[in-house]
Amino acid sequence: MNLTQEGVQEFKVFRYQFDAQYGKALGAVVSVVTGSGANDVRGSEFYFGRDDSLNARNAFAPTKPPFDEQRLGLLVRGPLIRNRSHLFGASESDHLDTVRVVALSASQTRI
Description:
0% of the residues lie in helices and 48% in strands. With 111 residues, it is mainly β. It has one domain (8-108). The protein is flat, with a radius of gyration of 22 Å.
C-alpha cells in the first residue's frame, strides 16, 4: 500500500517480538496511522522540482543525460457535519523523466 508522506500521522516498527495479531511475519512489522479530519478546514501542499539545467555532465559521458522530476502533493481535512463526520484526503503525484541503461548478457542477445 502506498501512502503519501503528508497523510501519515504516526508509524511504529515492531522488531523481533510482536503479538499474534500480526500473523506469520518473520522480520519486522510496520504499523502506519493516517491523519484524521478536523472541525475546521485545513490543508497543505508541496512541490519538489528538479530541472535538467541543474544536472552536471558525467566525466566519462559525451553528453549530459536527461533527468527531470516533479513531485506534487496535497492534503485536505475538514468537517462534513461539524463534530460528527469529517473528511480527510491526501494525494501525491510523481513525474520522472530519465534515461535507463540496460545491459544484456551475451546469452540473451542471441536470436
